[in-house]
Design brief:
single chain; about 140 residues; mainly alpha; two-stranded antiparallel sheet; globular
Length: about 140
């Protein structure tokens, strides 16, 4: 019987940087859904606000997260994760939370949100934790 999963010696517990990346990916998806004018229910709006709050809380210790993240070596582009990326994440969290709470979104704010989502969404696929678990086939 084949068993798929991580090798026991390569497993690790989930860290805050893993949670930050997962929540950030979710926030980008939620922002894109809003920009495409997908209707959000009350549960979705509550989760948007909660997710943005958790990201803001996790970003308080950005330097610790930054030391545990790296750009995938196979990335085609020269990508930097620096204070600008950090500021854009904070801005996205504030914008998404504001939108979810019912504040109006004009043409310029919509363009700024689209620009921010595109910037972060471009970097996220190349961003990974340094100690990534490797899936192996165990026979």
């Amino acid at each position: 019987m084949l068993r798929l999963g991580s090798n026991l010696f390569q497993m690790r517990s989930v860290r805050n940087d893993d949670i930050l990346l997962s929540r950030l990916r979710l926030m980008v998806v939620m922002a894109r859904a809003y920009l495409q004018e997908t209707s959000l229910g009350k549960t979705s709006i509550r989760s948007v606000v909660r997710n943005a709050g958790q990201i803001s809380r996790l970003l308080m210790d950005w330097n610790a997260h930054l030391s545990k993240l790296q750009i995938n070596p196979q990335a085609q582009k020269n990508i930097d994760i620096d204070h600008i990326f950090y500021q854009r994440i904070k801005l996205l969290a504030i914008m998404v939370k504001s939108i979810a709470q019912g504040n109006p979104l004009g043409i310029r704010r919509r363009a700024a949100l689209q620009n921010n989502v595109d910037y972060i969404g471009e970097i996220l696929p190349h961003l990974q934790p340094i100690h990534r678990t490797v899936l192996t086939v165990v026979k």
